[in-house]
């Protein structure tokens, strides 16, 4: 059934290896935070699918990739020279919230798309994010997420490589009905799209969350104090990777999440804005 749904949701899955530069804009900034060496190999198909979706947005798209540690030239910059890379200082534990806040400060688009580095998107994905955030302050674009198993992920990642640069899955020799799917998930908090000014008015992401889990649900609870379109329509493909150490040992920041969510969201917004001083100006600072 998963393969049947995947074939129906992805009659086309496109890949591009460059993005046209808009004369004005961009309208959309895609924020991608990445940590861990095991995730690096997933970046190529992820970014190639995002650039294919960017082709459909006439107002322009920028993709901001944020890593931990000192910035140094990477293979990604050679494959995708249009990607904007930035970094945060090394942290005791992976802090996705800190990384997203840094990327948001650098963003120029009116719409921020918070996107995970292990998700492949359809060609209409960024157009959907832009259209829905022009009607509401935020949106949850995802509808169904297809989780591939490890062998199918290995096959897809190998086929969609920077040397061959296929334009479609068919070009890469991959058929959706040949992929093995572990599960199909819906109604997940990520990905999200939000107007830039709304992101900052809510205080951005809460940097108290370190390691795996909690930060997205906490942010979503504050996002729900605004007008948010939660009727997702976009399918996504999730590439397999080993679970994070905190997820493996069962520590998902649950106590911190529960404590945060016990407070009214408006109170958390006020505290975060005061604490972070998260601001944006026309120079992207």
UniProtKB/TrEMBL annotation:
Record Pfam families: Glyco_tranf_2_2
Coiled coil: none
Start and end residues of each Glycosyltransferase 2-like prokaryotic type domain: 63-225
InterPro entries per record: GlycosylTrfase-like_prok, Nucleotide-diphossugar_trans
Disordered, as annotated region: 241-268
Protein name (database record): Glycosyltransferase 2-like prokaryotic type domain-containing protein
Species assigned in the record: Stieleria maiorica
């Amino acid at each position: 059934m998963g393969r049947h749904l995947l074939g129906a949701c992805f009659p086309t899955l496109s890949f591009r290896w460059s993005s046209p530069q808009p004369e004005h804009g961009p309208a959309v900034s895609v924020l991608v935070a990445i940590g861990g060496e095991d995730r690096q190999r997933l970046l190529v198909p992820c970014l190639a699918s995002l650039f294919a979706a960017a082709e459909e947005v006439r107002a322009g798209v920028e993709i901001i990739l944020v890593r931990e540690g000192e910035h140094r030239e990477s293979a990604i910059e050679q494959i995708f020279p249009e990607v904007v890379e930035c970094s945060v200082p090394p942290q005791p534990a992976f802090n996705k919230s800190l990384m997203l806040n840094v990327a948001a400060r650098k963003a120029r688009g009116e719409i921020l798309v918070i996107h995970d580095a292990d998700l492949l998107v359809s060609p209409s994905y960024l157009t959907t994010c832009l259209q829905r955030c022009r009607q509401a302050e935020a949106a949850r674009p995802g509808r169904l997420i297809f989780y591939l198993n490890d062998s199918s992920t290995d096959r897809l990642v190998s086929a969609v490589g920077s040397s061959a640069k296929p334009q479609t899955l068919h070009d890469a020799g991959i058929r959706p009905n040949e992929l093995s799917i572990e599960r199909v998930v819906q109604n997940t908090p990520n990905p999200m799209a939000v107007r830039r000014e709304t992101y900052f008015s809510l205080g951005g992401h809460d940097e108290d969350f370190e390691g795996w889990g909690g930060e997205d649900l906490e942010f979503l609870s504050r996002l729900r104090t605004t007008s948010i379109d939660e009727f997702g329509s976009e399918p996504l493909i999730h590439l397999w990777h080993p679970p994070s150490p905190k997820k493996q040992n069962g520590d998902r920041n649950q106590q911190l999440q529960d404590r945060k969510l016990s407070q009214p969201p408006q109170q958390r917004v006020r505290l975060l804005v005061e604490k972070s001083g998260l601001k944006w100006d026309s120079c992207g600072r």
